[in-house]
Amino acid sequence: MSDTSLGTTTATEIDTETDEESADRSLGTETDNEMEPWITDVRSPILEAEELVVQYGDIQALQPVSVGLPEKEVTAIIGPSGCGKSTFLRCINRMNDLVDAADITGSLRFRGKDIYDDDVDPVALRRKIGMVFQKPNPFPKSIYDNVAYGLRIKGQTENMDEAVEQALKRAALWDEVKDQLDKSGLDLSGGQQQRLCIARAIAPDPEVILMDEPASALDPVATSQIEDLIAELSEDYTVVVVTHNMQQAARISDKTAVFLTGGQLVEFDDTNTIFENPKHQRVEDYITGKFG
Protein backbone atom coordinates (compact mmCIF):
# COMPACT_ATOMS: atom_id res chain seq x y z
CA MET A 1 0.00 0.00 0.00
CA SER A 2 1.26 3.51 -0.75
CA ASP A 3 1.13 4.47 2.94
CA THR A 4 2.70 1.67 4.91
CA SER A 5 1.44 3.18 8.15
CA LEU A 6 -2.12 2.45 7.13
CA GLY A 7 -3.41 0.30 9.63
CA THR A 8 -6.02 -0.28 13.58
CA THR A 9 -8.12 0.74 16.48
CA THR A 10 -7.33 -1.24 19.55
CA ALA A 11 -10.74 -2.65 20.40
CA THR A 12 -13.54 -3.91 18.22
CA GLU A 13 -17.10 -5.05 18.39
CA ILE A 14 -18.57 -7.09 15.59
CA ASP A 15 -22.18 -7.45 14.71
CA THR A 16 -24.36 -7.84 11.70
CA GLU A 17 -26.47 -4.84 12.70
CA THR A 18 -27.91 -5.73 16.07
CA ASP A 19 -25.69 -8.18 17.97
CA GLU A 20 -22.73 -6.55 19.72
CA GLU A 21 -19.54 -8.26 20.75
CA SER A 22 -16.35 -6.57 21.91
CA ALA A 23 -13.11 -7.96 20.56
CA ASP A 24 -9.53 -6.94 21.29
CA ARG A 25 -8.53 -6.97 17.61
CA SER A 26 -8.66 -3.38 16.52
CA LEU A 27 -8.16 -0.89 18.09
CA GLY A 28 -39.57 -0.08 1.67
CA THR A 29 -37.57 0.22 -1.72
CA GLU A 30 -37.12 2.87 -4.43
CA THR A 31 -38.47 1.95 -7.85
CA ASP A 32 -35.84 1.33 -10.53
CA ASN A 33 -36.19 4.75 -12.13
CA GLU A 34 -35.68 6.43 -8.76
CA MET A 35 -32.41 4.68 -7.93
CA GLU A 36 -29.15 6.44 -8.67
CA PRO A 37 -25.67 6.48 -7.14
CA TRP A 38 -25.34 9.29 -4.61
CA ILE A 39 -21.84 10.40 -5.47
CA THR A 40 -21.29 13.78 -3.86
CA ASP A 41 -19.67 16.74 -5.52
CA VAL A 42 -17.38 17.38 -2.56
CA ARG A 43 -13.77 18.13 -3.44
CA SER A 44 -11.39 15.23 -3.07
CA PRO A 45 -13.46 13.15 -0.64
CA ILE A 46 -11.28 11.26 1.80
CA LEU A 47 -13.52 8.16 1.49
CA GLU A 48 -15.21 7.01 -1.73
CA ALA A 49 -17.46 3.99 -2.14
CA GLU A 50 -18.36 2.80 -5.63
CA GLU A 51 -20.98 0.10 -6.16
CA LEU A 52 -20.18 -1.26 -2.70
CA VAL A 53 -22.30 -4.35 -1.93
CA VAL A 54 -22.35 -6.54 1.19
CA GLN A 55 -23.91 -10.01 1.42
CA TYR A 56 -24.26 -12.08 4.58
CA GLY A 57 -24.86 -15.49 3.08
CA ASP A 58 -28.14 -15.24 1.18
CA ILE A 59 -28.99 -11.86 2.70
CA GLN A 60 -28.00 -8.72 0.83
CA ALA A 61 -27.29 -6.29 3.67
CA LEU A 62 -26.13 -3.44 1.48
CA GLN A 63 -27.37 -2.54 -1.98
CA PRO A 64 -24.84 -0.92 -4.35
CA VAL A 65 -23.60 2.20 -2.56
CA SER A 66 -21.68 4.96 -4.31
CA VAL A 67 -20.80 8.00 -2.22
CA GLY A 68 -17.93 10.32 -1.34
CA LEU A 69 -17.42 11.53 2.23
CA PRO A 70 -15.70 14.88 2.83
CA GLU A 71 -12.55 15.35 4.86
CA LYS A 72 -12.63 16.96 8.33
CA GLU A 73 -16.39 17.14 8.47
CA VAL A 74 -18.98 15.17 10.41
CA THR A 75 -21.10 12.82 8.32
CA ALA A 76 -24.15 11.32 10.02
CA ILE A 77 -25.64 8.04 8.84
CA ILE A 78 -29.31 7.63 9.70
CA GLY A 79 -32.09 5.18 8.92
CA PRO A 80 -34.32 2.54 10.53
CA SER A 81 -32.95 -0.56 12.24
CA GLY A 82 -31.57 -3.18 9.89
CA CYS A 83 -31.09 -0.80 6.95
CA GLY A 84 -27.34 -1.29 6.58
CA LYS A 85 -25.99 1.71 8.51
CA SER A 86 -23.57 -0.22 10.70
CA THR A 87 -22.74 -2.61 7.86
CA PHE A 88 -21.59 0.33 5.74
CA LEU A 89 -19.69 1.90 8.64
CA ARG A 90 -17.81 -1.32 9.31
CA CYS A 91 -16.79 -1.66 5.70
CA ILE A 92 -14.81 1.56 6.03
CA ASN A 93 -12.12 -0.01 8.21
CA ARG A 94 -12.73 -3.61 7.12
CA MET A 95 -14.36 -4.69 10.37
CA ASN A 96 -16.69 -6.86 8.31
CA ASP A 97 -13.65 -8.97 7.42
CA LEU A 98 -14.10 -10.50 10.86
CA VAL A 99 -17.60 -11.75 9.95
CA ASP A 100 -17.14 -15.09 8.19
CA ALA A 101 -20.38 -14.84 6.24
CA ALA A 102 -19.65 -11.37 4.84
CA ASP A 103 -19.02 -11.11 1.09
CA ILE A 104 -18.01 -7.61 -0.04
CA THR A 105 -17.82 -6.44 -3.65
CA GLY A 106 -17.32 -3.09 -5.30
CA SER A 107 -14.67 -0.65 -4.16
CA LEU A 108 -14.06 1.56 -1.15
CA ARG A 109 -11.20 4.01 -1.46
CA PHE A 110 -9.34 5.83 1.31
CA ARG A 111 -7.37 8.74 -0.14
CA GLY A 112 -7.69 7.12 -3.56
CA LYS A 113 -6.47 3.67 -2.50
CA ASP A 114 -8.93 0.77 -2.54
CA ILE A 115 -8.80 -0.58 1.00
CA TYR A 116 -9.84 -4.04 -0.24
CA ASP A 117 -6.76 -4.41 -2.45
CA ASP A 118 -4.66 -7.45 -1.62
CA ASP A 119 -1.70 -5.33 -0.51
CA VAL A 120 -3.64 -3.47 2.19
CA ASP A 121 -3.00 -4.58 5.77
CA PRO A 122 -6.33 -4.30 7.64
CA VAL A 123 -4.54 -3.92 10.97
CA ALA A 124 -2.52 -1.01 9.62
CA LEU A 125 -5.65 0.47 8.02
CA ARG A 126 -7.43 0.59 11.36
CA ARG A 127 -4.71 2.78 12.82
CA LYS A 128 -5.69 5.35 10.20
CA ILE A 129 -9.43 4.71 10.56
CA GLY A 130 -10.29 4.31 14.25
CA MET A 131 -13.61 3.15 15.65
CA VAL A 132 -15.77 3.84 18.70
CA PHE A 133 -18.72 1.61 19.53
CA GLN A 134 -22.19 1.95 20.96
CA LYS A 135 -21.35 0.45 24.31
CA PRO A 136 -18.23 1.80 26.03
CA ASN A 137 -15.68 -1.02 26.05
CA PRO A 138 -12.59 -0.02 27.99
CA PHE A 139 -10.07 -2.76 28.60
CA PRO A 140 -9.72 -4.11 32.15
CA LYS A 141 -6.56 -2.05 32.44
CA SER A 142 -5.58 1.28 33.91
CA ILE A 143 -6.71 4.49 32.24
CA TYR A 144 -3.12 5.05 31.13
CA ASP A 145 -2.74 1.56 29.67
CA ASN A 146 -6.06 1.84 27.84
CA VAL A 147 -4.84 4.88 25.95
CA ALA A 148 -1.29 3.58 25.52
CA TYR A 149 -2.43 0.23 24.14
CA GLY A 150 -2.72 1.30 20.52
CA LEU A 151 0.53 3.22 20.70
CA ARG A 152 2.35 0.13 21.93
CA ILE A 153 0.79 -2.01 19.20
CA LYS A 154 2.00 0.62 16.76
CA GLY A 155 5.51 0.19 18.17
CA GLN A 156 5.83 3.56 19.84
CA THR A 157 8.15 3.60 22.83
CA GLU A 158 9.12 7.27 23.18
CA ASN A 159 7.12 10.20 24.56
CA MET A 160 4.41 7.83 25.78
CA ASP A 161 3.35 10.04 28.70
CA GLU A 162 2.97 13.04 26.41
CA ALA A 163 1.00 11.03 23.84
CA VAL A 164 -1.38 9.65 26.48
CA GLU A 165 -1.92 13.11 27.94
CA GLN A 166 -2.58 14.60 24.51
CA ALA A 167 -5.14 11.90 23.61
CA LEU A 168 -6.97 12.36 26.92
CA LYS A 169 -7.03 16.12 26.40
CA ARG A 170 -8.44 15.73 22.89
CA ALA A 171 -11.11 13.44 24.34
CA ALA A 172 -11.96 16.08 26.98
CA LEU A 173 -11.09 13.66 29.79
CA TRP A 174 -7.67 14.76 31.02
CA ASP A 175 -8.82 17.18 33.71
CA GLU A 176 -11.06 14.51 35.23
CA VAL A 177 -8.51 11.70 35.36
CA LYS A 178 -5.04 13.27 35.37
CA ASP A 179 -4.48 12.41 39.03
CA GLN A 180 -5.71 8.82 38.76
CA LEU A 181 -4.19 7.41 35.59
CA ASP A 182 -3.47 4.14 37.37
CA LYS A 183 -7.18 3.68 38.13
CA SER A 184 -9.02 1.00 36.16
CA GLY A 185 -10.90 2.29 33.13
CA LEU A 186 -13.79 0.10 34.24
CA ASP A 187 -14.25 2.27 37.35
CA LEU A 188 -15.17 5.35 35.33
CA SER A 189 -18.73 6.47 34.67
CA GLY A 190 -20.40 5.50 31.39
CA GLY A 191 -19.72 8.87 29.78
CA GLN A 192 -16.13 8.86 30.98
CA GLN A 193 -15.65 5.33 29.68
CA GLN A 194 -16.86 6.38 26.24
CA ARG A 195 -14.49 9.35 26.21
CA LEU A 196 -11.70 6.99 27.29
CA CYS A 197 -12.54 4.79 24.30
CA ILE A 198 -12.39 7.87 22.09
CA ALA A 199 -8.99 8.74 23.56
CA ARG A 200 -7.84 5.20 22.88
CA ALA A 201 -9.05 5.45 19.27
CA ILE A 202 -7.34 8.78 18.56
CA ALA A 203 -4.05 8.03 20.38
CA PRO A 204 -2.49 6.32 17.29
CA ASP A 205 -3.27 9.52 15.35
CA PRO A 206 -5.89 8.30 12.85
CA GLU A 207 -7.31 10.41 10.05
CA VAL A 208 -10.87 9.09 10.30
CA ILE A 209 -12.95 8.26 13.37
CA LEU A 210 -15.98 6.00 12.95
CA MET A 211 -18.64 6.08 15.67
CA ASP A 212 -21.47 3.57 15.90
CA GLU A 213 -24.23 5.02 18.12
CA PRO A 214 -21.61 6.48 20.49
CA ALA A 215 -24.11 8.14 22.84
CA SER A 216 -27.08 5.77 22.79
CA ALA A 217 -26.09 4.11 26.08
CA LEU A 218 -25.44 7.42 27.86
CA ASP A 219 -27.54 9.85 29.89
CA PRO A 220 -28.41 13.30 28.48
CA VAL A 221 -25.50 15.07 30.18
CA ALA A 222 -22.94 12.55 28.93
CA THR A 223 -24.59 12.60 25.50
CA SER A 224 -24.17 16.38 25.33
CA GLN A 225 -20.50 16.00 26.23
CA ILE A 226 -19.98 13.47 23.44
CA GLU A 227 -21.74 15.71 20.93
CA ASP A 228 -19.57 18.67 21.91
CA LEU A 229 -16.53 16.45 21.60
CA ILE A 230 -17.53 15.30 18.10
CA ALA A 231 -17.68 18.95 17.00
CA GLU A 232 -14.19 19.55 18.37
CA LEU A 233 -12.78 16.37 16.82
CA SER A 234 -13.99 17.36 13.36
CA GLU A 235 -11.44 20.17 13.37
CA ASP A 236 -8.67 17.56 13.17
CA TYR A 237 -10.39 14.36 12.00
CA THR A 238 -12.99 13.14 9.56
CA VAL A 239 -15.86 11.82 11.69
CA VAL A 240 -18.55 9.38 10.50
CA VAL A 241 -21.36 8.75 12.99
CA VAL A 242 -24.18 6.21 12.85
CA THR A 243 -27.15 7.36 14.91
CA HIS A 244 -30.82 6.51 15.32
CA ASN A 245 -31.38 9.95 16.83
CA MET A 246 -32.34 12.27 14.00
CA GLN A 247 -32.25 15.33 16.25
CA GLN A 248 -28.69 14.41 17.14
CA ALA A 249 -27.77 14.01 13.47
CA ALA A 250 -29.20 17.46 12.76
CA ARG A 251 -27.21 18.96 15.64
CA ILE A 252 -23.80 17.46 15.04
CA SER A 253 -23.33 16.77 11.33
CA ASP A 254 -22.35 18.65 8.21
CA LYS A 255 -23.55 15.92 5.83
CA THR A 256 -26.18 13.23 6.27
CA ALA A 257 -26.60 9.90 4.51
CA VAL A 258 -30.04 8.29 4.68
CA PHE A 259 -30.23 4.50 4.40
CA LEU A 260 -33.66 2.92 4.17
CA THR A 261 -35.05 -0.60 4.25
CA GLY A 262 -33.22 -3.01 1.99
CA GLY A 263 -29.76 -1.58 2.58
CA GLN A 264 -30.17 1.29 0.14
CA LEU A 265 -28.46 4.64 0.39
CA VAL A 266 -31.38 6.73 -0.78
CA GLU A 267 -30.05 10.24 -0.28
CA PHE A 268 -26.84 12.03 0.73
CA ASP A 269 -26.55 15.79 1.04
CA ASP A 270 -25.86 18.69 3.35
CA THR A 271 -27.60 18.02 6.64
CA ASN A 272 -29.76 21.14 6.38
CA THR A 273 -30.99 20.03 2.96
CA ILE A 274 -31.77 16.51 4.14
CA PHE A 275 -33.86 17.77 7.05
CA GLU A 276 -35.46 20.78 5.40
CA ASN A 277 -35.79 19.91 1.71
CA PRO A 278 -35.03 16.26 0.94
CA LYS A 279 -35.20 15.17 -2.69
CA HIS A 280 -36.99 11.87 -2.04
CA GLN A 281 -40.46 11.45 -0.61
CA ARG A 282 -39.37 8.34 1.29
CA VAL A 283 -36.68 10.35 3.06
CA GLU A 284 -39.16 13.04 3.99
CA ASP A 285 -41.58 10.38 5.26
CA TYR A 286 -38.87 8.83 7.40
CA ILE A 287 -37.67 12.12 8.85
CA THR A 288 -41.21 13.25 9.64
CA GLY A 289 -42.02 9.94 11.33
CA LYS A 290 -44.50 8.59 8.78
CA PHE A 291 -42.58 5.31 8.77
CA GLY A 292 -39.49 3.78 10.36
**CATH C-level:** Alpha Beta
| Physical arrangement of strands within the biggest beta sheet | 8-9-10-5-11-12
Taking pLDDT < 50 over at least 5 consecutive residues as the criterion, the unreliable ranges are 1-42
Structural class: alpha/beta
Distance between the termini: 41 Å
Give the rounded overall mean pLDDT: 86
Global geometry: globular
What does this structure look like?
The structure is a single chain. The chain is 30% helix and 23% strand. It has 292 residues and is of the alpha/beta class. A six-stranded mixed beta sheet has the order 8-9-10-5-11-12, with helices on both faces. Strands 4-3-6-7 form a four-stranded antiparallel beta sheet, covered by helices on one side. The relative contact order is 0.19. It has one domain (38-287): P-loop containing nucleotide triphosphate hydrolases (Rossmann fold, 3-Layer(aba) Sandwich), CATH 3.40.50.300. Helix 3 runs parallel beside helix 6 (190-202) and helix 4 packs across helix 6. The protein has ten helices and twelve strands. This is ABC-type phosphate transport system, ATPase component.
